[in-house]
Amino acid sequence: MTSKISFTKLTAGSIRRRGWFLLLSTGAFFLMMPVYGLLFLSSMRDSTNAYLDSLASIQWQFAGIFNGWTSRYFVAVPAGLSVLAALTGFDFIHSREKLDFYHSFPVKREKWFAVSYVSGLVLLLAPYLVCALLTCAIGAADGVLTAGSAPDCALAAAGGILAMFVLYNACVFAVMLTGRAVTGVLASGAVIVYPYLLLGVFSSLQDTFFKTCFEPSGSFALRLAMRISPAGLFASLVRSSSFGSISPTFLGCTLVLSALFAAGALILYRLYPSEAAGNPLAFPVTAPVIKILLCIPLSVFAGLLFVQMMAVEEALWLLPLSVLFAVILCAVIEFICHPDIRMLFKNWKSSLIAVAAAAAFVCVFQFDVTGYDTYLPDRDKIESISIRPDSFTGYFSYPSDRTVSDTYPSESDLGHFAPPEDTDALYALAENGIENLKNGVNTANLYSGDVNSEGYVSVLFRYRLSGGRTVMRQYAVSAGQAEQALTKLLENKDYRRDLFPIFQINREEVLDVSVYNIYGQLTASGREGTLTKAQQDALLDAYEKDVLAADAGLFLKGAPCGELYIDIPDPYEQDADSSYAQDAADTAVLSSGQEARRSDTPSYCVNQFYLYPEYTNTMALLKEYGCVPENRIPAEDVSSISVNLLPETVQDAGYQKLAASLSDSAVTEDYDEQIYISSSDPDDISRILDFVPDYTVGLLMEDGTPKNYVDIQYKDGTGFGYAF
Hints:
Helix content is 53%, strand content 12%.
């Protein structure tokens, strides 16, 4: 016969029993929100930083106070209290006397579970909500909390509540697996971080052993961990809610994971045997499984951490280290379960399985059992292929690089898909990359200097498969074969329009166009604000025509003489203050009839629009405007110059002649067989400029070999440096 005592009375009794926790949580949340809120607003009033003083910045940071994001140390408050609420709410199951006492009452176990579960949430959330309301009152009194910023504060508070909720449920589940408070704490930590640890180790092994791996948006394993791990969800909810949004994905994962933990905890509590109280684990049958599951990621993580701390470059040591740590972990886990040194290897079978599983986990990556690196989709399954050599980042600058968008990386960052007729040529290039990989040449050792990189370039490939899936790999391919493939691609005008950033510029947003020589100097008549809007449009039209008409070889081996710098509105600044949006569209008409961008319009410059002497239309207009860039550095414009030379360059006869001609004022220093020379003497500057080859840039010019470097400081205060 069950008792008729009400659920409310039982819950109230549980809350009274844990009055000390109510005081603790109230004090902690009071310090985290109202007290810190007052200190924060006071410090903002005393700040002299113009950005921090802006109302938008203060409101954004004020919202982060509700979940600890503004001062990251306070994130530990909701996290720690969530764990403590779960442990103290069900602490009676760790004492046989208390457990027998509770279960002697004619109350169903489901009801006891609900009482402890709900009372823990009340003790956790009630003080949080009270302190959040007090913080809102402080913000409103200060003028920071307004009708416009209140939703952001409410969202941040909701994010904090959801973050605590998922940790609370995970810890309740962990407590049901144990029979002691100590092992309950350890189990809580394991349940909270285990998915993140396992997937994090997976990602680290992938980065360590897979030579063709490329995941521009971050590891898929880590992104998955942020959604299925209580620790990952806690961090994601706090961060995203502080920035004014909670992803439906994170919200759904939080609710589903919390429901699973709560349901699992209820089932375990119904099965919880009274004799389990006082034992390390409530269900001894789970001990071997838990040991194996914990041993695999923990031993590999310890191995990775040891290799990193000891700066061990040889990754082959990871396997024996992981095995060693697996043995140690098995012994530690056995000692926790059976605190007797004679029992360390009693359950040797499960320990052997755990060690073997950890070793196998590493071997799958170390020996590429799955064939990840050598994977190449079947030709008939590929719809299209895109390539993006690393050198593209030094040749192209896209306006999308600074666009406020959730789409990252953009198509331009990954390379544009080639026309179908060029797929075979790119497939052959990918085969060359895999062949080089088998011969020991890959992107990793290409840039580390472990192999002679001459004749190779690093290229990112994207395969768009017939099923809609996209696969990415990065190879070191033959520079000659890459040049042939790229030359063929550039013959297609549509591909050029996709590839060259000039076709992605919104003409309506262009604020100004400036003309520089290839060494970073403004031309006399091409300075900011000197070209009218009509001249700018005519210049950009001519530039587009020349880009489409130029021979493909020009982009690969041509010598540019200058660059166009195009100013466009800065989307980040506009997003931070919406009042800039209108300013970005406005222009001020000057008395001369020219148009220039408003001085208060936040903007940024997109450059690397290279100018070639072969660009006939563009060069004709520049000549008409009086701003033709010259491909030289006037020595009279340089205030100082420094050059860093490699040992092989120092041994050259040309350097010996240069060194003998330098004045006594030139500073020459030797760093690990590399020579560093600097001088401000005009004659020395002329001699060094004659010694240094001209700066050139091309689509496939860069490789991983170390280079000499020259740094030039002009008399106008600007500088320019380049490798040669």
